[in-house]
Every structure is written in structure tokens, then in C-alpha cells.
Amino acid sequence: MKKITLSFIFSMFFVLSFFAQEYEIESFTKTFTDSNRRNRRVTAKIYYPKQLSTTTENYPVIVFGHGFVMNYDAYENFFDTLVSKGYIVAFVTTEGSVFANHKAYSEDLAFMINEVRNEANNSSSPIFNLVGNTNALLGHSMGGGAAIVAASMVDVNTLVTFAPAKLRFNTITPATQVTEEALVFSGSADGVTKPNENHIPLYNSLGSNCKYFISITGGAHCYYAMPNGYCDFGERFSSRDVSVTRSEQQEIMFTYVIPWLDYKLKNNGASYQLFKDTLNNDSNVTYENGCNNEFNLSTEKLPESSFSVQVGPNPTKSFVNINTSDEYEVEKVEVYNQYGKLFLDSKSKQVDLSSLQRGIYLIKVYSKGKTITKKIVVE
């Protein structure tokens, strides 16, 4: 890796990281039951920051999807790094066999977002009162494709994928329904999920107004994770021209992941500036900036849009109420399914969804030439 080229980047990263508290790590395993899918049992290994004082803090939540025939123990680098910096990380451990049901796994990831939120109010949970109000979906390989599909089903603050794979069903259409800002990581030497066949089409299909494609030059497929027999065996016979080590690839990866998550989940504008400066000075990656709303940051906090929308209750069995920021009135509301089919339109702030079948829907709210899309679950 080009240490001299990256010295500027890592010095900037060190300045921000130096003052950040490092947390000790604790974990527990829990099996949740999804009553909407015939009481499907979904198990997760949840890592969280250890409380070192009587002061209770709230931590953003990351739900992580594993690769094909891989498990949470292959991603020790993620929970060691992210939890120590003040994040709760839930690894969904289902569908770890060669017969993995990709659709079910995508639904498991979406389901876990809400279940970890609910743990905030569960007095018997180790993370009772520790769960913050922001969250993200992350995933590697199969888990990356599943995270994309899950992001089309549930509201999160951001989506980050590592060598995402197309799944055993149409993954492109759900990608078009993803509105969250996103990062897609790729390795130029990845022969397992080839970039031209997997990463790039999925990235291009994302409906995000702001997204980045980051390709690590000479990067491998399996090097995002720790050594894993199944993954490394497959890569040994498929990937050519890998020119970085595993530790180097992970160092490059976290140089972007940490400031991006601090920006999206902790509202740290300086971290976003660091993220962009890193891209502009890093000869170890090539990238595409797919953001339509770029702006310069001169303050610690990001400017907030004056147009905001709240939709609830969510989930619902009948009506939803739509509340907008003071200076905006609801002009039109459209309700789509997750595949883009229009089901309802209204000009009311209260919309009756009782005629819809159970599932995930998108509510698009129009006002003064602006639109905001929210996801809603109909039970």
C-alpha cells in the first residue's frame, strides 16, 4: 500500500479519532420471532459498548449481513472497530448454509432493524435504554445484496455494502426503490462477485440521491472479512491480480466507513468533509461520486432541510397521518408498492391504507415542488 500517499489521509483521520472515546465491547445472542412470517425465528449476535459509568448513552445501530456460508465470527474486524467507536452492531446469523434462502435473509435484515429498536424499551435486554434513533444496513457479498433488498423494505439512515452480490431473485428492482444515501465498495481484482456483473449494476440501480462507488485497486472479495476457509478457497481459484494484503484492504475500507457512519449516524459534518478529502487524495482507490446534493461544510453539524415529513403510525392496519414541517402543506400523496406500482393517491393528510394487502409500501409526499418518500408497513 502507498504509505506516503496515505500519510495525509491517516493524519486527518487520527485528528478526529484521537478525541473519540474508545469503548469496551460486550455481546449477547438473542432469537427473535417474526409473527408476520409464520413465526420465523431470526437469531442475531449483538455487540454493544460497555457502560463504564452511571451515565447512559445512546448508540446508533448497525445491522450486518454476512457472506455466503460465512458467519459473524468472520467479521471480528467490524465489531472490534465499530463497537469500540460507539455503535451497536447486530449480526444476523440465519441462512448460513449452501442452501441459503436469499429472499428470507433479506427479510431477516429488514426485520432486525425494528427488533433492535424495540430492545431500547425492553427492560430485560442488555441494551435497554442504549439504542439511539439512527441506524444503518451493512452487508458483505450475499449479505451486501440482501442489505440492498432490505433497504427497500425499511427506513434506515444509510446503506453500506462490500462486494455486494446479485441474489437468487431479481435484486435490481428492489435496488431502484432504495432512497437512502449509500456506499458500495468493490475490489478491482474480485473474481468471486465480479464488479461488472454485480457491484456496478447494483450501484447504478440504486435510487439514492447520494451514493458513492469506491473501488480498491487490487482489492479482493474476501479481504473485507477475517480469514474464512470457504470464502478464501473460492477466491483462490477465481480472483487474479490481488495486489493488497488483507490488513491493507481493511485499513483502506475503514478509512472511509468510519467517517461515513459518523456523518450519517452521528450527524458529524466534519467527518463527511474528511471522507471527501480522503477520496480526493487516495491513490489506492478509484471512485464515482453519484451525489446530486453536494455542498461544502464549514460547520460541525450538517444543515437540515426545511422540508420534513413524519408518517405514522408505522406499522399500521388502516390509516396513516402525514405531518409536514410548518411552512409546507401536503399537496399530494402517492402510495406505491416496493416494485414501483402506484396503488393510491390522495390530497389528504390522513390516508386510508386498509384496502392494501400486508406488506411494505412507499408513501411519496409532494409539497412546493419538493418530494419526500417514506416506507410504511401495512399489517
TrEMBL record:
Domain Secretion system C-terminal sorting, residue spans: 313-378
Coiled-coil regions listed: none
Keyword list, A-Z: Signal
Pfam families: PETase, Por_Secre_tail
Annotated PET hydrolase/cutinase-like domain residues: 43-226
NCBIfam families noted in UniProt: Por_Secre_tail
PANTHER family xref list: CARBOXYLESTERASE TYPE B DOMAIN-CONTAINING PROTEIN, CHLOROPHYLLASE-2, CHLOROPLASTIC
Name of the protein: Putative secreted protein (Por secretion system target)
Species of provenance: Tenacibaculum skagerrakense
